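Pilot study result, target chain (83 residues):
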Amino acid sequence: MSTVISQRDLRNNSGDIMRALDQGQEFIITRNGVPVGELRPVRRQFVGRAALAAAIAGAPPIDARRFRDDVDAILDEDVEPRS
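Predicted structure:
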């Protein structure tokens, strides 16, 4: 459940709010009583080697030359030095 706080509370109590975020608390920020945004902790999830290998086990092989050509076509960058 999110805690509703004002823009002023966010400004004046940012240290306390950051500590609460570290603990997993979420906030809804209001301006003049109107919700304008959400503040929530970043959800980081570690994916182990075995899980990654299982996830990509059925993936098709990558043709390195074709991949590079596709990237070059999109980015259109010259590898030659400019100076």
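One observation from the pilot: DSSP finds four helices and three strands in the chain. A full batch analysis is planned for the follow-on phase.
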